[in-house]
# Entry
Amino acid sequence: MAQPERDPPRGRLEIRGATVSFQGVMAIQDVSETLSSGEILGLIGPNGAGKTTLVNAVTGFQPLAAGDIRLNETSLKALSPQRIRRSGVSRTFQAGRLFATMTVLENVELAALSCGLSRSAAAEQAREILDWLGLTEAAATPTSILAYTDERRVGIARALAGRPAFLLLDEPAAGMSDAECNRLIEVIRAIPKRYGAGVLLIEHNVRLVMTVCERIHVLDSGRTIARGPPAAVQADPAVVKAYLGEGKSRAA
# Structure
């Protein structure tokens, strides 16, 4: 199947001084970052550093106490998760959140429909994405009986439905074997070229993050402690102390 043409550049997603508070406890404090179209950015840090909380704030699942989220200068701060998705910012979840009584194909079609596509366009796009991800044979399978790693791939397929401008992946390699992780590396690398999307990646696999990401942002206790290219981040003493010292096989 021919690959879809890459969309033209679609701007940037900005996090401006994002702060999230849970009953007075700062989960995220004054975090800023910019993700451009076609870029792959890693977000790592120890468990509890605030990575998923930040993604929740960007995608409307968690209100900000201060700061702003902007897509091409338009604030997303007051929008619902559905409005943000329709605006072009999509995500996966650590828990798959698939509709268990529906098939793989129906799950992806529904995600495309929720972005405003017609039924015929949603069906065509769902089949194209499943084919690309190697899930065509599972299209008619109820998601309730999928293997865990296949659930992760279906989550990516659903997030890609509607051709988002920015894709936020929350631990997509969880539970994957080395071979499955190698295939995921290929998929993530190809997303900006194939779909024109910028990618924000949260991941616990150091090799994956350091291989696919052009830049990395490191959180610890809700604050930014480092950011830059992979080699510089890996060598940063603050990152080694707070995170990489936990074990080189882990990250994010």
Summary: The domain at 12-88+164-246 is CATH 3.40.50.300 (Rossmann fold).
